[in-house]
Amino acid sequence: MHIVFTDLDGTLLDHETYSLEPARPALAALKQRGIPLILASSKTEAEMRPIAADIGIDDPMIVENGAGVVNLPDGAAGEDGVYARLRAVLDDMPRDLRQNFAGFGDWSDEEVAQKTGMPLETARLARMRRFSEPGLWNGSEDERDAFRGILDQHGFQAVQGGRFFTLMPKTSKADAMRKVAALYREMSDEPLVTVALGDAPNDAAMLEAADIGIIIANPAHAALPETARERAGFIRRSEKPGPAGWNDMILQLLV
Predict the structure, then answer these.
(1) 100/89 Cα distance (integer angstroms)
(2) In this predicted model, what pLDDT tens digit does every residue of 162-214 receive, in sequence order?
(3) pTM higher than 0.70 for the full model?
(4) What DSSP designation does 78 have?
């Protein structure tokens, strides 16, 4: 039994247009064979639900860059209340540290749209968070270290991305993939083969952890470096970018 985990932006979705149309044949082939498709993204559940509905799937989703897993199989319960606990940790921070961080929960929909370039409706969905808090840090390095230390004491971490300083549980897309795969293994007598597709550094651990990793070309940024697992044949690369490359690689896998 195969189970496919995929990043969205720049992988299944076109980097510029966010269209998945070129991947329709492969998506249909997965559905016809009953192969679960697990969306794995930095987006919130609210942002990802319309994409899943467009594809026509109701599989689990790895949301907020691996900070949470929703829609688990067999009625398994996902962890809840994470965002409220994270915001409580922020509220209890010493004022001289707390004032250096402002996150999506501190901003209005309009402010998030302005800071991200998102349309207003997308910004509204991006603020519907359950597991993590992206934001901006304005303090010194020493203050940031102290801020991170308090988060660490409460089981959270702060990850600096290209734009945002994101507060989240100590987990990743790769950890979430293992969690979902373990649940499917419990539900099936067949051997499980995990397949992961991604294009960016935040996908690298997931690609390395999968039985088969597929790097989707994305001319918008530097290619992921070659690793020992790629040299050993466990990781492949698409020639075409985005959903066209995704389509080719999935159809090749299913032959």
Answers:
(1) 14
(2) 678 999 999 999 999 999 999 999 888 889 999 999 998 889 999 999 999 99
(3) yes
(4) P
Catalytic residue among 7, 14, 199, 248: 7
φ, ψ (nearest 5 deg) of residue 127: -85, -5
Q: Which CATH superfamily is domain 82-169 in?
A: Putative mannosyl-3-phosphoglycerate phosphatase; domain 2 (3.30.980.20)
Tokens representing 107? 């901003």
Phi, psi of 157 (to 5 degrees): -135, 165
Residue 248 annotated to the active site: no
Domain boundaries, the chain: 2-67+172-254, 82-169
Q: Which CATH architecture has domain 2-67+172-254?
A: 3-Layer(aba) Sandwich (3.40)
Yes or no: say if 167 and 121 are a contact pair by the CB < 8 Å rule. Answer: no
Cα distance between residue 67 and residue 46, in whole Å = 14
